[in-house]
Design a protein that fits this description.
Order of helices and strands: EEHEEEEEEEHHEHEHEHEHEHH
Strand content: 25-35%
CATH architecture of the largest domain: 3-Layer(aba) Sandwich
Number of domains: 2
Distance between the termini: 59 Å
Radius of gyration: 20 Å
Structural class: alpha/beta
Number of helices: 9
């Protein structure tokens, strides 16, 4: 198309040799300048709004090349694509290169580089929500959420106090760092539009590296609904992780501003032997009683539960159940 270009947007994949997955979108956009989320003021606002101005392209044929393997798929009508495959060779832990190409009118492919993450075989997998669990987002109030997005760049977004400390302690749990840290997955109702923005925030604050599993791509006319969909998919996305990593115990971390307690309770009911602990930040105090009532159902199952206000409370609970070591806390924090 005149004046536009096609972009294959690849999100970091994950899995192990026998079960790999990578997601992405095919987008139609004007020739782009680098989005700059680290500047203040209108420049940041414009950069973020541009993430909702692109148009997905559906129905196109895509090809993935992974070492000596070739897999093909068709993008869905909203431009979303997913590749699932098994490697024909053993994969060591770490990041592995791949490339995905779009067939052009001449039948040739133009490729974009991507990566798939193979974690070490550790004891735990940590699954965390983002908004109002890690980031102060005011998700339940549309205008306050939009103000956080549009006004505060990646360096100004506020995290809950001690969140970085707690998550980095959890990443060490049951591991020796030379053998690799526990994998983190950030599963959120935030849209795939915000992928680059969220990655900037997490990298700047030195949160554990992880894969993002976000919600459906939104167009500009749905911008005011940002963060308001995808809850029904969160169960499905986490249950897939449970199937991909059948040997690990899972720890689920969220908040009660929306539906995390209900979703996590359903997962615990369906996978009682796989869930080690559930942590819920008490954002909506009027929902505390409901959250605690859900927790009562797991008293006999051995699943640990914690409704907390501050991350220090969560750290103390993690110490009490042996999830993290006091020596690690002292090394990282001094408290």
């Amino acid at each position: 198309m005149m004046g536009t270009s096609v972009e294959i947007k690849i999100y970091n994949g994950y899995g192990h040799s026998k079960n790999l997955v990578v997601y992405g979108h095919v987008l139609n956009r004007k020739p782009k300048k680098t989005n700059d989320f680290s500047n203040n003021g209108w420049k940041h606002t414009f950069s973020l709004l541009k993430l909702f101005l692109v148009r997905p392209i559906g129905g196109v044929r895509l090809r993935l090349q992974f070492y000596n393997q070739i897999i093909e798929t068709i993008a869905e009508p909203d431009g979303f694509f997913k590749f699932k495959w098994a490697s024909n060779t053993h994969l060591d832990p770490g990041l592995h290169d791949l490339k995905i190409g779009l067939m052009g009118v001449d039948g040739k492919y133009g490729f974009t580089q991507g990566k798939v993450y193979v974690p070490h075989s550790t004891q735990y997998v940590f699954v965390s929500d983002i908004d109002d669990t890690v980031l102060i987002s005011h998700s339940a109030t549309v205008l306050r959420r939009l103000r956080e997005l549009l006004v505060k760049n990646a360096h100004r977004r506020r995290l809950f106090s001690d969140n970085v400390i707690w998550y980095n302690l959890l990443s060490r749990s049951g591991t020796r760092t030379r053998e690799g840290l526990n994998p983190f997955f950030y599963v959120s109702s935030s849209e795939w539009n915000l992928y680059d923005y969220l990655q900037r925030i997490f990298a700047y604050n030195k949160l554990p590296h992880g894969s993002f599993l976000l919600s459906h791509f939104k167009r500009w006319f749905d911008f005011f609904k940002t963060g308001k969909t995808g809850h029904e998919d969160k169960y499905r996305r986490i249950s897939r992780l449970l199937r991909v990593f059948p040997k690990q115990k899972f720890v689920l971390i969220g908040d009660n501003s929306q539906r995390d307690p209900i979703i996590y309770a359903a997962l615990a009911n369906d996978y009682p032997d796989r869930i080690m602990a559930i942590y819920i930040r008490d954002i909506k105090h009027k929902k505390a009683a409901m959250t605690l009532q859900l927790f009562k159902n797991f008293q006999e199952t051995g699943i640990q539960t914690c409704l907390f206000n501050t991350n220090r409370e969560a750290i103390e609970h993690s110490i009490s159940i042996g999830l993290i070591k006091e020596a690690d806390v002292l090394e990282l924090t001094g408290f």
